[in-house]
Amino acid sequence: MATDQTFPLDPPRPRALPVPPPIGETVVARWTLVAIAGLFLALVLVLPIAGVFTEGLRKGIWAYFKSFGDPDALASIQLTLLVAVISVPANLVFGVAASWAITKFDFPGKSLLITLIDLPFSVSPVVSGLVFVLLFGAQGLFGPFLAAHGLKVIFAVPGLVLATIFVTFPFVARELIPLMEAQGAADEEAALTLGASGWTIFRRVTLPNIKWGLLYGVLLCNARAMGEFGAVSVVSGHIRGLTNTMPLQVEILYNEYDFVGAFAMASILAGLALITLVLKTFLEWRFGDELAANRRH
Amino acid sequence: MTSTPSAAARPSAPARPGRRALFVRLRDVALVAGAFGAILGTTLLARADTALLNVSYDPTREFYKDVNQAFAAEWKAATGETVVIRASHGGSGKQARSVIDGLDADVVTLALAADIDAIARETKKIPADWQKRLAHNSSPYTSTILFLVKKGNPKGIKNWDDLIKPGVEVITPNPKTSGGARWNYLGAWAWAAKEYKGDDAKIRAYIADLFKHVPVLDTGARGATTTFAQRGLGDVLLAWENEAYLVFDEFGADKFDIVVPPYSILAEPPVSLVDGNVDTKGTRKQAEAYLAFLYSKAGQTLAAKHHYRPAEPAGVDKALLDRFPKLELVTIDDPVFGGWAKAQPFHFGDGGTFDQLYKPK
Amino acid sequence: MSIATSSGRGGAGRRRLVHGVLPGFGLAMGWTVVWLSLIVLFPLVALAVKASGLGFGGFVKLLQDARVQAALELSFGAALIAALVNAVFGVLVAWVLTRYRFPGRALIDAAVDLPFALPTAVAGITLAALFAKTGWIGGLLAPLGIEVAYTRLGVVVALIFVGLPFVVRTVQPLLADLDREVEEAAATLGASRLTTVFRVLLPPLVPSILTGFTLAFARGVGEYGSIVFIAGNMPYLTEIAPLLIVIKLEEFDWVGATGIACVMLAISFSLLLVINLIQAHANRRS
Predict the structure, then answer these.
(1) What is the CATH architecture assignment of B142-267+325-357?
(2) Chain B environment of A205 (Cβ under 8 Å)
(3) Chains meeting A at 3+ CB pairs closer than 8 A?
């Protein structure tokens, strides 16, 4: 696992990650696997995304960029960022806390707890929006209270945030649980016997161990938070320039037969992958030596 | 898993600069994010000034974009007050539900009277007799259902009975989820009722046959249009009159033809003030003026421009009016249907005539 | 949300039932339970309360309805098939991405998350365009007599797309973490590569594969946005359960809509619980 050792026994191999396999498949087998995976991805991933960009660029690069100049489009981008900035950290904190409790301790009802965490995934987006309408809508449980105090949850930013937190709820926790489960608690227990405090253990031992899982969790969570359509659509009210997030703006543009605008907007969301790429490359570069050390111990 | 106790061997030793730097960086990121969020929040609040909200259905987007601009200009000229009109578009039923759940619409302009009835019933924010408040059943414009076919009309579709000829594929959205599709359905029903002289079994057989020719039920009218116009599926699209002309403009008149059946239904999309909301917000004056504008010469001309049939065509340019094809139209209040209050549950309610079509024998 | 902070020590009283020497259980568990209750449980209880308006007889009637049954069958069946496909290919993709260098690897690695980032409606529209008779792939399949768009197969294709990231992303960090010494040891002891893969490498991955499978399955069951564009939405045939919920809502039938939602929720919950129990059992044995 992660070490503080600063003097590796042999020179670090920073860029070659992971180390070229000393054991492994034959060249033929390797390329066959790559080919199968590539074909699968081409069919279910690359082609649809290529389709998005083709549509977005159909009328040329100028039309593509012009579609972002629309004030409603800009407002939707702002709103989407705002919602993600609130909901992703909320789920990050929850995810770390939940996986700490679940993987480092044994207690009855653990499977039930995990199942409850999974539950938001199986709830149809339509319903995830609906539950908040049932609670905070004008006819809902808290509707009269909110109306009496002039507060707005549904058809305003709080509703969008709540629905987004709900649909992205399990991501970070579910990403971390199998990883931390596999890693066990031995590292942390060792640190404890050496007198480290809880926070130090988490920061110095656990966090370095789980950073990849954490990164994937946050990336997935963020991607979904920005791309969520169904649940948000129920609580948004679709007010142009006010409560439309990017996915809803895409729908609006599409329904106005502005295919270029719609797919251009969608392609920004696809552009999130580029951010993923930059972040990962950065982390690999930043922690490359440490990873290389891990792999060899 | 192997573990390395050495990992935590020196918990109190100075942190590696790199890792500390990462935390500092994370803190910075959090700060920046927080500041960013605050700025966004304030801009959003600042934007929420006095405004009218028009909650409408899908195919009226282009029309109300023009209306909102024209009305804002007129209001400014008359009173000096700047009024911002916000628009929300979506499926008619879904929009009605949003208003019921608290979306504070000043006016609703929906596809079906039944949807505004539902708002009145569930919220009491609109009086039950709302439809009598404005002229022409509160419908400042009307529309009808036409056929859109491929250029040259290769399948020779002229009338409703041509839709069930062998090999013809019909595209229409799902009447359960789309307001426009209900008008399509009622149009077909009206024709069959006339053709078969009210013979219930024959009407139902025709409708059942018709929906056997429908390969896909999109959830919304615009989805169905895209399926037909862009994806090239089906031979005929049942569409709102204004939608059919819009497709002409958007996808090119060289690809499609509009077929006008001799007999169709008069679709009356109604409008209403949401009294409960305008009184809370203090926007009654502006909202009433907005609805009155729809009936004005300027409003009616805009409607005609967007291929909605003006309810008061007197002041509208004749050239615009001449574009509307002439055909015999039946209304929802015709004895065949007996008004929305009866037709809605009978045809589209749970277990209604539409559901019966798909019941396995 | 800030209310939750103060009650962070909620789980402290249960220490005797809890095994583990590390600190922070109270805080972590308390936060987990509070947040879970606020965001997930409370809203779902509200859903159940609304649905209880149906009454027992209403639920039985709902379950006996052939159309509801057909829709549930489709939603759960298609989700299961799609999750299985994703489990197999997801592991393969994760393996290829962590173990091999090849041109474009980094880009593909980053692109795996895209099915989440793309709004489901866009995914549905794009997939329908690709797989319709007039599309790039649909055009190739049509002569072979395979129709994807507007059939049940279309539902599965859409679900494979939306569920893909789950398996890849849950297996990937574990695969990256896997100790190569074990592999080397197995190879030194004369195990063939295949034996090593299936007897040494795969077993520790099973929990994460199962997790990914579970999540992809759960997500598929409820999916709406992408499917309605590619499924055709024919009652009894290609109508998914979430669409039935929407239809009920269009009829202003909140109770019926929440009723179907609750039935779906109950089935998903039981299935997820069984899978998680199996997994906990497997973890304990290893």
Answers:
(1) 3-Layer(aba) Sandwich (3.40)
(2) 7-8
(3) B, C
Q: Do C106 and A277 touch (CB under 8 A)?
A: yes
A242/B44 Cβ within 8 A: yes
Peptide bond into B335 cis (omega under 30): no
Give the C-alpha distances (Å, rounded to integers) separating A234 from A7, B103, B181, C38: 56, 11, 21, 20
Which pLDDT belongs to residue B8?
Answer: 40
Looking at domain A68-257, its CATH superfamily turns out to be MetI-like (1.10.3720.10)
- Percent of chain C with pLDDT strictly greater than 70: 93
H-state helical runs in B48-110: 61-79, 92-100
Q: Give me B332's structure tokens.
A: 């929802």
H/E element, B84? strand B84-90
Domains of chain A: which residue ranges? Answer: 68-257
Nearest 5°: phi and psi at B84? -100, 130
Chain Cα centroid distance, residue B278 = 22
* Residue-by-residue DSSP string for chain A: ------S-SS----SS-SPPPSS---HHHHHHHHHHHHHHHIIIIIHHHHHHHHHHTTTHHHHHHHTT-SHHHHHHHHHHHHHHHHHHHHHHHHHHHHHHHHHH-B-TTHHHHHHHHHHHHHS-HHHHHHHHHHHHSTTSSSHHHHHHTT---TTSHHHHHHHHHHHTTTHHHHHHHHHHHHH-SHHHHHHHHTT--HHHIIIIIIHHHHHHHHHHHHHHHHHHHHH--HHHHHHH--BTTTT--HHHHHHHHHHTT-HHHHHHHHHHHHTHHHHHHHHHHHHHHHHHHHHHHHHH-
Yes or no, beta carbons of C11 and A202 under 8 Å apart: no
pLDDT digits (tens, 9 = 90+) for C13-61: 444 577 788 888 889 999 999 999 999 999 999 999 999 988 889 899 9
The residues, ordered by sequence, that sit 6+ positions from B69 with a Cβ below 8 Å of its Cβ are none
Tokens of B263: 């007999």
Q: Tell me which residue in A86, A152, A196 faces B11 most closely, judged by beta carbons.
A: A196
Q: Which residues of chain C have pLDDT under 70?
A: 1-16, 285-286
Of the pLDDT bands very low, low, confident and very high (cuts 50, 70, 90), residue B43 is very low
Q: Which residue of A has its CA nearest to C50?
A: A134
Residues of C in contact with A104 (CB under 8 A): 20, 22, 24-25
The top-scoring range by mean pLDDT among A68-72, A137-141, A154-158 is A154-158
Mean pLDDT to the nearest integer, B277-303: 95
- Pull the structure tokens for residue A126: 């339509």
Q: Above 50 in pLDDT, residue A17? A: no
CB atoms C132 and B233 under 8 Å: yes
CA gap C24, A202 in Å, rounded? 10
- Domains belonging to chain C, first-starting first, are 1-54 (no CATH), 65-285 (1.10.3720.10)
Whether C35 sits inside 8 A of A121 (CB atoms) is no
CATH superfamily for domain B48-139+269-295: Periplasmic binding protein-like II (3.40.190.10)
**Residue B7: is its pLDDT beyond 80?**
no
